[in-house]
TrEMBL record:
<keyword id="KW-0472">Membrane</keyword>
<dbReference type="InterPro" id="IPR004864">
    <property type="entry name" value="LEA_2"/>
</dbReference>
<keyword id="KW-1133">Transmembrane helix</keyword>
<dbReference type="InterPro" id="IPR044839">
    <property type="entry name" value="NDR1-like"/>
</dbReference>
<dbReference type="GO" id="GO:0009506">
    <property type="term" value="C:plasmodesma"/>
</dbReference>
<protein>
    <recommendedName>
        <fullName>Late embryogenesis abundant protein LEA-2 subgroup domain-containing protein</fullName>
    </recommendedName>
</protein>
<dbReference type="Pfam" id="PF03168">
    <property type="entry name" value="LEA_2"/>
</dbReference>
<dbReference type="GO" id="GO:0005886">
    <property type="term" value="C:plasma membrane"/>
</dbReference>
<feature type="transmembrane region" description="Helical">
    <location>
        <begin position="32"/>
        <end position="65"/>
    </location>
</feature>
<feature type="region of interest" description="Disordered">
    <location>
        <begin position="1"/>
        <end position="25"/>
    </location>
</feature>
<dbReference type="GO" id="GO:0098542">
    <property type="term" value="P:defense response to other organism"/>
</dbReference>
<feature type="domain" description="Late embryogenesis abundant protein LEA-2 subgroup">
    <location>
        <begin position="98"/>
        <end position="194"/>
    </location>
</feature>
<keyword id="KW-0812">Transmembrane</keyword>
Amino acid sequence: MSEKQAHLNGAYYGPSIPPREKHRPGRSGGPLGCCCSCIFGLIFKLIFTAVVFMGLAFLVFWLIVRPTRVKFHVTDAKLTQFNFSTDSNLHYNLALNLTIRNPNKKIGVYYDRIEATALYEGQRLSTAPLTPFYQGHKTTNVLNPVFKGQQLIVGSNLLEEFNQQKSAGVYEIEMKLYLRIRFKLGRIKTGKFKPRIECDLKVPFSENGNSVGTFQTEKCSIDYFD
């Protein structure tokens, strides 16, 4: 018995025994970490399900309605006055035919506000407000904005550009449309959109009914998210 006690009281030269790890609350392996993981997993599944559902709803809507952009064209233009006076005022008289085509079979368009602005070399000449209207399915409307008056135009290279275009008999004029529109699908009406339409025109000068060339129809660009 005494020999066993002497053996137990002796020094131990084996590998060190690691201390017992104390449990710390809040670690990933604990109940709190498991709860947070479950919540984040549930949120991710809900978001994923909502995205898939919205994508399918949009696909079904597109397959049924087949929405198509409204098309804007300037089909004719008559420029009967376009000259500078000695005080750098540009005198102009421009009449346009603007064609708006709605190719959609199930979507109508409310034009609650429509204004046309003419510009020369990036400088505004004048603005022509046009009458609001509703455009039905697969219909075409023709508008006739007229720009007439005088405007002070300044610029270092403006006169040189003007003389070159005058020699050619064709002037580069830009028209912009500022709209406030709504779409109608059945009895449903959307909120308001403010698209911007830009039309780059090359207009031959006409004097006494004669011009150096014929105006070519120009397709306008449209930006719904300007």
